User: Which sequence fits this backbone?
């Protein structure tokens, strides 16, 4: 990667929620203070909302890292579950094996546990991320749990974090009792122009820039114009621009690199993106504001992938506009729990017109047609080998394009790859990744 050229110790614009890189803008600091208030007050029930990529998960991870030892935490991220499954997930977080329990037993066990923790002087906190996906029945269970109390105080503190739709759901007439129990609500907005500049500089400093100028000052207005101050979009654009500068052997990112990154990502200015999408797919509820942009994005399925292992399909995922990360750890969009997969192995960047697959400096690489590639524009029907798994890509757009079987492959050879063999992945283990080298084999076919 570009670390040596820019004299950095680590990648500054990773998408993973690393507390070390948290930039506390005025709004982020306030949201964090609201989270902390759940510990200070005995009736702590807080809701934090924000657009996709606004930094909610990073805030949660930072908050958790700073908690005192007497706080018992249950963190739930999988929210497309039934009421029974939610209660089971909660008890699993507390160390129980509740999968054969009926609902009455689940509730009794949970109530007993909460009272026991209170009696032992411990505070219990429930954090639910992506809470906008919770059904009304699950939200009603959370309301009932919030009512568990002693004669003096509530026993369970609760933080719900999610996208703006969560507020819409909580404001519905059917959940009025739950809404009345919420003590604080806060909406996390995008970064301002000045905060966007400070955010970029902060991440570079944490990565080891030591005050050196890596992004020329005239790049900042362009970055803000195309990202709208959304941290995840800033990360995507800045990382792609640094790769562009790296390809030109420049240790400073210029406007030329930013423009090249924008062209590669096929982005339009942030304020125009929702209008573009609605021109293609029609307005959603008459809304044309940027506040609804990512809500509109999520409904547009532009591609689909099937994940195969030993000739059997084991997973299917939809691709919508944005970045889709594949790796071994749970923080990825697609987790493949295999020793041949790096923590963050590859990404698929989906725009209105293309899906681009990129290697994230993985140990064992990605292969298309038995050739190791760093970056490839995906075509309908492509089969990608990643570790011992295959991923088949389907283009869901109306007009599909496909390179003929005897045509020229658009795979790009891996830059600075010490392994040039077409027979299989590299046999080198990365220093910062506990990944086993993959035995050589050709990419297989995926049965759907």
Assistant:
């Amino acid at each position: 990667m570009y670390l040596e050229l820019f004299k950095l110790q680590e990648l500054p614009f990773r998408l993973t929620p690393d507390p070390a890189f948290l930039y506390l803008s005025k709004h982020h600091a306030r949201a964090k203070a609201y989270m902390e208030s759940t510990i200070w007050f005995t009736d702590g029930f807080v809701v934090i909302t924000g657009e996709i990529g606004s930094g909610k998960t990073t805030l949660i991870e930072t908050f958790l890292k700073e908690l005192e030892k007497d706080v018992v935490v249950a963190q739930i991220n999988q929210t497309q579950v039934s009421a029974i499954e939610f209660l089971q997930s909660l008890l699993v977080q507390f160390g129980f094996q509740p999968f054969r329990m009926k609902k009455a037993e689940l509730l009794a066990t949970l109530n007993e546990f909460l009272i026991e923790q209170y009696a032992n002087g411990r505070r219990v906190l429930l954090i639910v991320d992506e809470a906008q996906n919770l059904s009304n029945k699950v939200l009603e269970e959370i309301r009932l749990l919030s009512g568990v109390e002693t004669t003096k105080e509530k026993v369970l503190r609760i933080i719900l974090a999610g996208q703006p739709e969560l507020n819409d759901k909580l404001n519905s007439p059917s959940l009025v009792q739950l809404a009345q129990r919420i003590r604080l609500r806060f909406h996390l907005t995008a970064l301002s122009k000045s905060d966007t500049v400070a955010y970029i500089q902060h991440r570079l400093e944490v990565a080891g820039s030591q005050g050196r100028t890596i992004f020329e000052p005239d790049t900042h207005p362009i970055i803000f114009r195309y990202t709208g101050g959304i941290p995840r979009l800033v990360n995507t654009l800045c990382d792609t621009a640094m790769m562009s500068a790296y390809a030109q052997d420049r240790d400073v990112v210029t406007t030329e690199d930013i423009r090249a990154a924008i062209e590669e990502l096929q982005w339009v200015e942030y304020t125009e993106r929702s209008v573009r999408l609605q021109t293609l797919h029609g307005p959603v509820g008459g809304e044309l504001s940027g506040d609804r942009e990512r809500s509109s994005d999520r409904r547009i399925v532009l591609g689909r992938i099937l994940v195969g292992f030993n000739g059997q399909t084991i997973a299917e995922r939809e691709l919508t506009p944005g970045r889709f990360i594949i790796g071994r750890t749970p923080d990825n969009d697609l987790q493949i729990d295999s020793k041949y997969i790096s923590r963050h192995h590859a990404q698929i960047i989906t725009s209105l017109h293309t899906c681009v697959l990129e290697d994230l400096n993985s140990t064992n690489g990605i292969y298309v047609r038995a050739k190791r590639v760093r970056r490839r524009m995906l075509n309908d029907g492509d089969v990608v080998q990643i570790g011992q798994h295959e991923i088949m890509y389907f283009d869901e757009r109306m007009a599909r394009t496909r390179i003929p079987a005897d045509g020229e492959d658009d795979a790009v050879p891996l830059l600075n790859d010490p392994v040039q063999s077409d027979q299989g992945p590299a046999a080198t283990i990365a220093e910062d990744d506990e990944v086993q080298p993959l035995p050589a084999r050709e990419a297989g076919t995926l049965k759907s």
